[in-house]
Every structure is written in C-alpha cells, then in structure tokens.
Amino acid sequence: MPTYKLYYFDGRGRAELCRILLAYGNIEYEDVRVSSEEWTKLKPTMPMGQLPVLERDGDMLCKSPVIARFLADTICKH
C-alpha cells in the first residue's frame, strides 16, 4: 500500500480539497503542516518551489488541481 504525505501551510487554503478527497477515499496520509521558518528551508526541495505537494512513495505531485485529479482517479479505481 502506498504511503502519502501532503505538504502545506498550517491552514485550509489550496490543500483543503486534497484533504477532503483523502478523507472521502479513506486514504491514510501524513498531514505535514509547514511553518514559515520551515518553508524557507523546504522550498528548494519542492517541485516548482510551491505548495501544496502530495508525496506518494517518494514521487511528488504539485499544484492542487493536479493533486485533486490524481486523488479522484485513485479513489474511483478502488
């Protein structure tokens, strides 16, 4: 079973739809809340230097619409 990590700031924002889809699909994930201090260190390691990012077994997806489509497709396949 794949492992998921969702990286975003401590707030709803652009990651909220992704969190809702993960909950709807009963997909276990680690909700990584990034502070502004952590973000300055983490930014160079993130694709396109942006959040939200969904990490699945080491592969990273960025941009909330892309993540949402991926999760919806994953949920529909189950």
From TrEMBL:
InterPro entries in the record: Glutathione_S-Trfase, Glutathione_S-Trfase_N, GST_superfamily, Thioredoxin-like_sf
Enzyme class: transferase
Entries under CDD domains matching the protein: GST_N_Sigma_like
EC number(s) given by UniProt: 2.5.1.18
Record's catalysed reaction(s): RX + glutathione = an S-substituted glutathione + a halide anion + H(+)
Domain of life: Eukaryota
Any Gene Ontology biological process: glutathione metabolic process
Gene3D superfamilies reported for this sequence: Glutaredoxin
Domain GST N-terminal: 2-78
GO terms of molecular function: glutathione peroxidase activity; glutathione transferase activity
PROSITE patterns assigned to the protein according to its UniProt record, in alphabetical order: GST_NTER
A UniProt-annotated Pfam family: GST_N
Membrane-spanning parts: none
SUPFAM superfamilies documented for this protein: Thioredoxin-like (SSF52833)
Protein name: glutathione transferase
